[in-house]
Amino acid sequence: MQENDLDEDAFSAAMKDVEPLNHPSSIAPKALWQGPSQTHLQRQQAAADFAKVEDEKNMLSLSEVKLRDPLEVLEWKQEGVQLAVFNKLRKGGYLIERELDLHHKTVKEARVLVYDLINQASAKGWRCILISHGKGQRSETPGKLKSYVAHWLVQHPMVIAYCSAQRQRGGVGSVYLLVKKSAASKETNRETYGQKSDI
């Protein structure tokens, strides 16, 4: 027996359990990806349109604002807010009905969160909110977010007063804010205290 015959026999023995692969033409081709469905695209567009409308409603500014010192005590009230009311706010005398922590948020993210929370507070009759904006002492622009929050709270028509919080609630890194009473809330107070309704 020649050497070539020995090699062929050894090869045949080694390959006896190997099954041949299916011919490529017999394998069903994978369905080609057609991209997102029309329904998916419509939902995407609806979400984008809703976000755009909500953003257009948001009057809180993203343009440059007056920078506040990271350690500055913030205080502001609308004309007509009684001093006794403002002093109570300063002392942390109001029940805090909601809190918002803006640490690690961008200015754009914070703008949406602040706007939404104030609107929600007005709708639900929450009177006092605590917003933790931080001091921003180590930021590239110190006090940046604090400065924007101070500016936004004056811009929003439902905020009637705000001031830096008591030390145990964040001090100059947080603010208490007082939300204007809704018409429904005013009516409830009139009924509670027996006052004549003007609604």
Notable traits:
199 residues; alpha+beta; Ribosomal Protein S8, Chain: A, domain 1; five-stranded mixed sheet; 40% helix; elongated
Number of helices: 6
| Global mean pLDDT | 82
Task: Report the end-to-end length measured between terminal Cα atoms.
Answer: 115 Å
Q: Give the helix level as a range of percent.
A: 40-55%
Low-confidence stretches: none
CATH architecture of the domain at 75-189: 2-Layer Sandwich
Can you tell me the CATH topology of the domain at 75-189?
Answer: Ribosomal Protein S8, Chain: A, domain 1
**Major beta sheet, strand line-up:** 1-4-5-3-2
Largest sheet: 5 strands, mixed
Give the H and E element order: HHEHEHEHEEH
| SS-based class | alpha+beta
Which CATH top level class of the domain at 75-189 fits?
A: Alpha Beta
Shape: elongated
Radius of gyration, taken over Cα atoms and rounded to an integer in Å: 33 Å
Query: How many strands appear in the DSSP assignment?
Result: 5
Strand content: 5-15%
